[in-house]
UniProtKB/TrEMBL annotation:
CDD domains on file: RNase_HI_RT_Ty1
Organism domain of life: Eukaryota
Organism listed in the record: Chenopodium quinoa
Name assigned to this protein: Reverse transcriptase Ty1/copia-type domain-containing protein
All residue ranges annotated as the Reverse transcriptase Ty1/copia-type domain in the record: 132-206
Pfam family, one: Retrotran_gag_2
InterPro entries: DNA/RNA_pol_sf, RVT_2
Length: 445
């Protein structure tokens, strides 16, 4: 647990505590710098204390509830449990949100070479309980066995073998291939929303339909609609082909109409005919990271905001994707593409760091393909000052990445741009073509 505190940069506050004023008069006498430091340390201490509370089981929690600081709570735990023999049964308790926010990594040493083993709790059980499942992976099968033995000697756990099912996600593995799908989840969703016998559709969204908040149609049960959309959002974990359609219908959560519900049910009809589809990942020699970005200028009828879309592929298979309405109104198609490219560039930075953590450093800049030459020029040279001076500063982050040679934008023709499927409804032939390019398919032995 100490390692988690260190990664969160709060171990010092737990070990040493922090200076607090005796009363309000003393605090008032402090200068602004000291007051600011006190407030910052106080926030860090509250955060550390909350992690400790969430990381112990219900039998231990009462012993530290009276503690007012993280240092005090940690001292109680140290005094009570340091040096004691291991109980006959212990449960692994890990703060789930810390793992997901910051990631966790064990570093083993074998012949002076660090081998990372990643673990992720996969469920959120009742308070006080630990995670039900744990995923771990390693570059060495022998190291995996050592890790399992080490964990099982310390905690009450069972080895379930090779991963086959994970939070509604089905995993099929064969030499050099991993197939991810949510077929059972899709079947359960169709049953839940009474769509098991619906007629399948070839695409998730009609090309001639523009949804609006004020469409004049009769309103429907918002709770039912939100439940449906939420279920579809989770399905996008393995179905990038429905991401844009789901993004569109998620804009009408507060007061959905019959038109919005019909659009959501059309996605279910598409899922009905493709529920066995998923993503196939194959072992390849070239793990080059490549991105595609696109925008649909002023596509929203309600506020004329554009939609940003991007997808990144490692080798030839998709690993990250997004379709999201932009936060501001773009005054031109070039500006919309520029904003979308910046969003994609931020994702590229994150993916490059993940690859580095996995000891797969990327050589040279990551290429992102875009079909707007003006947007590409704007990332390299801010010559169009009169056209760009109004753009929010954060969107110019991409210029820094291009200058540092972390990102490189290249032109591609609109018909070849994979990101089109994330910004607009497409005709059937084009949609099926891009779906294949994304790697969405049926598992084949």
């Amino acid at each position: 647990m100490k390692s988690i505190f260190i990664t969160q940069d709060i171990w010092e506050i737990i070990e040493d505590g922090y200076e607090k004023p005796k009363d309000a008069d003393e605090e008032a006498s402090w200068d602004d710098t000291k007051k600011s430091q006190y407030k910052q340390n106080k926030r860090r201490d509250h955060y550390a204390l909350s992690i400790i509370y969430r990381s112990v089981d219900e039998t231990i929690l009462p012993t530290i509830m009276a503690a007012t600081t993280a240092k005090e709570a940690w001292s109680i735990l140290e005094t009570k449990y340091r040096g004691s023999k291991k109980p006959e049964s212990k449960k692994l308790i890990i703060s789930r949100d810390v793992i997901f926010d910051e990631g966790a990594q064990w570093q083993w040493n074998e012949n002076n070479s660090e081998v990372p083993v990643a673990s992720i709790p996969t469920t959120s059980p009742d308070q006080g309980e630990g995670p039900n499942d744990l995923i771990y992976t390693c570059t060495s099968s022998r190291m995996i066995e050592e890790f399992k033995k080490s964990m099982m000697s310390e905690y009450e756990m069972t080895d379930l073998g090779e991963m086959k099912y994970f939070l509604g996600m089905q995993v099929k593995q064969s030499p050099g291939r991993i197939f991810l799908s949510q077929e059972k989840y899709a079947e359960d969703m169709l049953k839940k929303f009474n769509m098991r016998d619906c007629k399948p559709m070839a695409t998730p969204m009609a090309t001639n339909e523009k949804l609006s908040k004020n469409d004049g149609k009769e309103k429907v049960d918002a709770s039912f609609y939100r439940s449906l959309v939420g279920s579809l959002i989770y399905l996008t974990n393995t179905r990038p082909d429905i991401v844009h359609a789901v993004s569109i219908i998620s804009r009408f959560m507060s007061e959905p109409s019959k038109a919005h519900l019909a659009a959501a049910k059309r996605i279910l009809r598409y899922i009905k005919g493709t529920k066995s589809h998923g993503i196939m990942y194959k072992s390849v020699i070239d793990y080059k990271l490549t991105g595609y970005t696109d925008s649909d200028w002023a596509g929203s009828i309600d506020d004329r905001r554009s939609t940003s879309g991007y997808v990144f592929q490692l080798g030839s298979k998709s690993v990250s994707w997004s379709s999201k309405k932009q936060a501001t109104v773009a005054l031109s198609s070039a500006e919309a593409e520029y904003i979308s490219a910046t969003s994609a560039a931020c994702e590229a930075v994150w993916l490059r760091r993940i690859l580095k953590d996995l000891q797969q450093d990327t050589e040279g800049p990551t290429t992102i393909y875009c079909d707007n030459m003006s947007a590409i020029v704007m990332t390299k040279n801010p010559v169009f000052h009169s056209r760009t001076k109004h753009i929010e500063i954060r969107h110019h982050f991409i210029r820094e990445l291009v200058e540092k040679q972390e990102i490189e934008l290249q032109f591609c023709k609109t018909g070849e741009k994979l990101a089109d499927i994330f910004t607009k409804a497409l005709l059937t032939d084009k949609f099926l073509h891009f779906r294949r390019e994304l790697g969405v398919q049926v598992f084949q032995d």
